[in-house]
Amino acid sequence: MSNTEARPLADAIRFLAIDSIVRAGEGHQGVPLGMAEIATALFTRHMKFNPADPQWPDRDRFVLSNGHGSMLLYALLHLTGYAHFGIDALKSFREMGSTCAGHPEFEPAAGIEVTTGPLGQGIANAFGMAVAEAYQNARFGDGIVDHYTYAFVGDGCLQEGIGQEMISLAGHLQLGKLILCWDDNQITDDGSTSLSISEDVSARFRVAGWHVVEVDGHDLEAVSAALVMARRDPRPSMIACRTVIARGIARLQGQRGGHSGKLFEADSEAARRELGWPHAPFDVPADVLDAWRSAGRRSEDAYRAWQARVAALPAAERAEFERIQAGRLPDGLREALEAYQRRAVETSDAQAGITISGEINDLLVPYLPERMVGCADLEAPTGHKRSLKAFTTSDRSGAYVHCGVREHLMGAMANGMAAHGGVIPLAVTYLAFSDYERPAMRMAALMGLPVKFVFSHDSIGVGRNGPTHQPVEILASLRAMPNMRVFRPADAVEAAECWMIALEHRSGPSTLVFARQALLMVRTTHAAANLSQRGAYVLAEAEGGKRRVTLIATGSEVALALEARARLQAEGIATAVVSMPCCEIFDEQDAAYRASVLGVGTARVAVEAAVRFGWDRYLGERGGFVGMPGFGASGPAEALYEHFGITPAHIAAEAKRLISSHEG
Amino acid sequence: MSNTEARPLADAIRFLAIDSIVRAGEGHQGVPLGMAEIATALFTRHMKFNPADPQWPDRDRFVLSNGHGSMLLYALLHLTGYAHFGIDALKSFREMGSTCAGHPEFEPAAGIEVTTGPLGQGIANAFGMAVAEAYQNARFGDGIVDHYTYAFVGDGCLQEGIGQEMISLAGHLQLGKLILCWDDNQITDDGSTSLSISEDVSARFRVAGWHVVEVDGHDLEAVSAALVMARRDPRPSMIACRTVIARGIARLQGQRGGHSGKLFEADSEAARRELGWPHAPFDVPADVLDAWRSAGRRSEDAYRAWQARVAALPAAERAEFERIQAGRLPDGLREALEAYQRRAVETSDAQAGITISGEINDLLVPYLPERMVGCADLEAPTGHKRSLKAFTTSDRSGAYVHCGVREHLMGAMANGMAAHGGVIPLAVTYLAFSDYERPAMRMAALMGLPVKFVFSHDSIGVGRNGPTHQPVEILASLRAMPNMRVFRPADAVEAAECWMIALEHRSGPSTLVFARQALLMVRTTHAAANLSQRGAYVLAEAEGGKRRVTLIATGSEVALALEARARLQAEGIATAVVSMPCCEIFDEQDAAYRASVLGVGTARVAVEAAVRFGWDRYLGERGGFVGMPGFGASGPAEALYEHFGITPAHIAAEAKRLISSHEG
């Protein structure tokens, strides 16, 4: 197929995009019109995929990192024959409920590998997919896992810090099966890229160790040749495709308005004349559609051969491969965690929260070989360096990715791993620096990906490193995020319970937060049930009469609440302590359970070494809060708790104040 | 002064750091020991500064971006004679209340230019300072503003995305007075940098257009020569200083433990023997201290000459310079905003929130030449491109910085500008992407910097771009942040009021959030007072009897609440509408005012096209909420409001449900 023969295929993308955008009244034509030849080259000659089985585990992955150009993806999925993308779907572009949403929304069964739009996320996801592929390839071999990850990327993604982090680390790790096609159109939403960048982008990639090829992005043959070179090169590849934004719309092409300037019927008609496309809107001539559908079937042989190889695997290996693809936990894991809890109760040693998390993670290692850990320049929270090999250029069997001081990439890498499947990703750093990866955490929540975001140094307990390193508002800000579960366990038993819940939770991310300082054991008897499973529970019921006070605490403050309870009980005030390791799960419980935990008609005091924001929903009109009034300070942890009044004495005093003002 | 003569000066830094860290029992010795010669070269030969007047507006700025090495800064401030850093301050390193906090904490009167610790922030602040200098230099000339900005930086800052964003844009803008000294010690907290980076860092800077010099960081003469070259070169400069981390501590130097491995008395004694430093802890010999103090006085002539030049300025120019240094608003500004409000009431046109913000910002231009705007690849929210010139390599008088798609750098740049002084910085992007700059917003709040963070596209009103672009949790997450005011005005009048409050607020940042869609006028009569000044107020009081319902709303939902009120009043239910443009200010009001606004014993319904998280503190036990249950969706804005039930009908129904369940 020559450039001339391929031209109608590329134009089919162009006109489906134009027609859908004109019909919707808005959209971003810049990418689909500018990258039509590149997409045609990739999908008709190189991509390994099967529209009949969009979730084929060994398919090549395709990420449209410049997600605003969503019509490019939808047109490709339509033309190659994905069931969810019939012509009616395209006609409903940007309508409520359409599969063709404004930006691509994660739906692997439909052929959408990942939600994109926020710039830089997509290429960092692609990086994570390439890491997951390399790791699985090392484990299962070329016959079972051996695919490329392709990403289309615009200038915005590369200007973003996360994009730069990705360039640096992908080069370091020499991820040879990661291939980017850069839409070098010299235009961003703001105008010419020359407003804000002068550097030679190709040179920047080369400095980081990438293989770079520069081509005319409208020359399909040249792009295809570059893809061949890219696939052969052991380095990650960046194909710099010089393109004209919105090519085909004479009024806008090559200009700022090409990005998303409104398209009118007249533009569509002019483009049809210009490009010699006499067909009606949404009408793709049969020969062109046939050529595309045949491209959609080009991997059928490879698909069948792969199925045969999987079927021929030894039974145990096949079962294991299928287990991790399905995301099922192995037998024995629950029992191992329960045994850990039992031991913790028996020894009843206070231990640093991060040590506890490290122990639990070490314990998981033999059970979950599919788990991968990304770590941003520290090892404390999971202590994995002890028990996991590093994932390196020369050894892809390591499950521990040294991400460097690149939290944002780490989070988005984990999302890409989870979207890839076959891997359980963890991302680990200090809680204070969760803000650096927050945009990626939001994407995990939005996509419903089962990523485990793990954090240490969860409060002023950090001590002398001071307020920059002390989270106070971060628990609240994460709890505000839809579909994000935030766990803050009080001791080793709750930690194991929360890890079990997080590992079983598949429809969204979990955040697990651990103290740097020692956590006293608050669970002093072994319980057969997972008490954290309802989000909050009565840890110590009131004694000597009807409950008058409920103290609600999380994490390291649960032990303080227990001490406060002892003081109150000694004064004859019947007081219960509620431990609330996960607000989000508690909020899902029925009203009767919630009332039984929080207490009806009691005074309630919440205790958390963080801001009050978000706590009032549990406090009612007789509520108090003991926590942080604002940012922390630099000083020893004990001095800070004293200074900010997060003490048993103050908790007890607050409870008594509430009682006297209401009962009295 | 030769290397030999300077050695005791550098060692004075080393041993003050060692002594303070040993005494505190913890700290990060890697930087002060590794960068002692670099710091000595800079402070004894190049820096323009005056310990007797730490806030001299034309001083060179010094940023310790690798802020964990705080003892380097404290030792320098002590040795050069800053009043806040007597030897007792050093002896209290890391104690509660010490000026020598774990990480440097913003205190310009003491000589600390900016809080650092979270990696990458410091060099991005330094970038902002260099932009502010260039802008002020263009306005006031070399005689009044002409200084360098120096930053020390470690590997972590350069791995962070924000650091990479800075490299790219500083190179593009050719900020020749920005000079970095890179502590190239090949070690991070995680171990060798080779774990996570392979690229040639100097080459990466050169690609971006920087001047790079590579030197032995322990050769003071070589460093000093490089600083001379750096100051002369028109490009921004990066001096790559090859160093040995923790140099002087034989047990740790050049190794991972050098970063912050615990130091013992024995290490201190061994270092004293090794380096020939027989002096007692905290004892700096008189000749060495004299040499340092004399370095502290080296800019005295320059200081007096500068004072004379300022004194000789024409009166009006001098007054203007002093006004902007003091951060005072000019006469006439308030009146101009009031006139705008009056016009808005008279015309009573519904306008897009972003258009309103743009109009107000255009109006500010003649009054506030000290205002600078950083914009991340869009112009809509302030529409400044209309009214401001771009700040470019060839024209430093432009107040509009095209930041490219680099939100994180933009935010930290604004912080650096505010810390620099003489400039009022704004940073503008979509609210959904505030997460990308959130770490910088946190630093603004922590430092109490008067940055204005401006956002558009504040809700599902974004419509068809879908949930990636629709903030739902972001208002809550920003309200959770201490010392951050979040404004969400309901119409043009409130917008002008909120801008006035934000401009007058000097002790912390303000976030201003605008709708993309049209805002109906809810303020239909002109009020002499700024009604937004108390955070919330009764916009429409209940009529026809005692108030039974309070509807509390913000932004675009205030108009919906007014419609709901009309329905309820029509049914004889006395209903008030409260507009709450700023929760944080309302929370500071006295209890009586708050009760009078929220209503006592009434049903209360909060209405906001965002999550409920944080609203319960206003709702009491008879509260309802009409807003978002989770993430949004892709579809027309009106359809989304209908779909999620954020409608007058639903608000009224919720109010009636509450009434019937409680009154009935």
TrEMBL record, chains A, B:
Catalysed reactions, semicolon-separated: D-sedoheptulose 7-phosphate + D-glyceraldehyde 3-phosphate = aldehydo-D-ribose 5-phosphate + D-xylulose 5-phosphate
Active site: E407 (proton donor)
GO molecular function terms attached to this record: metal ion binding; transketolase activity
Listed GO CC annotations: cytosol
Residues that hold substrate according to the record: H28, H259, H457, H469, R516
Residues that, per the record, bind Mg(2+): D155, N185, I187
Binding site for thiamine diphosphate: H68, G117, P118, L119, G156, N185, H259, F433
Site (Important for catalytic activity): H28, H259
Any one biological process term the GO annotation gives: pentose-phosphate shunt
Pfam families registered for this protein in UniProt: Transket_pyr, Transketolase_C_1, Transketolase_N
Residue stretches making up the Transketolase-like pyrimidine-binding domain: 351-522
Entry annotated with the keyword Magnesium: yes
SMART domains listed in its UniProt record: Transket_pyr
NCBIfam families per UniProt: tktlase_bact
Assigned protein family: Belongs to the transketolase family.
The protein's name: Transketolase
Organism of derivation: Caballeronia telluris
Lineage: Bacteria, Pseudomonadati, Pseudomonadota, Betaproteobacteria, Burkholderiales
